[in-house]
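This section describes the prediction task in plain terms. A model, or a person checking by hand, is given the sequence of a single protein chain and must write out its three-dimensional structure as a string of tokens. No templates, partner chains or ligands are provided. The sample shown here is typical of the held-out split.
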Amino acid sequence: MSKSGRRVSAAAAVLGISALALAACGAAPTDSGKSSSGSAAPKIDYTACMVSDEGGFDDRSFNQASFEGLKAAEKDLGVTTKSAESNSKTEMKPNIESMVSAKCNIVVTAGFNIGDATKEAALKYPDTNFAIVDFGYEDRPANVRTLSYKTDEAAFLAGYAAAAYSKTGKVGTFGGAEIPTVTIFMEGFLEGVNYYNEKKGKDVKVVGWGDSKSFVNNFSDANKARQISDNMIADGVDVIMPVAGPLGQSAVDAVNESSNGEDAVVWVDTDGYEYAKNGKAVVLTSVLKKMGETVEESIKSGVDKTFKGEDYMGTLENGGVDIAPFHDFSSKVPSELQGEIDQLRKDIIAGTVKVGK
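The expected answer:
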């Protein structure tokens, strides 16, 4: 979640004796010296750490996807991993400090809220590598790799699909907070709906972004997210795209309980068909950010001693963003529409269809 159009979903982690002094100020770090089950690489002398944004590593969204990249590196590369969950903004700085104190070779952080603390630590500790998910800097420190994503490109495809799927002519979206890494989804979604209207001579409306804006104003108030979702459904919205981390579950619950068998959700960050609780019956598609893959790549570059400060941008062209399969909705999405979306993806990559301002 960044200024200047960049996004970051950051997670940094740490443990060790030296971290204990700071544990009272932040989440107690967790050490994971063993790899997950299955064939694993031999252990090597390299420690990769991660600190979460608010929401924790089980948020079914960007924190969890980033954390899975850390665990994949543990299994595939043989690194030792350490992690700390931030329950509030005040815990982020001490969590990062505790990682550095634990001699982490690379510290990965996740999200807009942790951007300033990550930059401060990177400047203070120039010999430690840092990567930050969903955030970008105009004056990036030399030891930081930013991991950002043009999610508006993928959200454009989802908006087109949602508009085509809608039976009521109304689709909706709401955000956790009005920050760039959230609104880029909403803007891309709106542009996709508008493009569908232009090409098909339709007038599908978007509730929650554009003329009106819907935000929870945090990523923790599930009751408010549920109220927004219920109000949209009552207003005739039959496809909702929540861009609110774990609060997306409130939209899934609302659509499941609407019980008409037609309303749907567009999930974000991860594949909601797999990640959202009871999502299989209602998730039309998902706007994907390949955060786990880019986190693991960043750690691998440290292991290979090729790490350098740079700005990575995930796009449709390089596979850093996309939409998920339609899964159980495939029978409700005509092959003609799927073909149109495939062509639209190619057109965005070629630049013949422009996304973003």
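For orientation: The mean pLDDT is 89.
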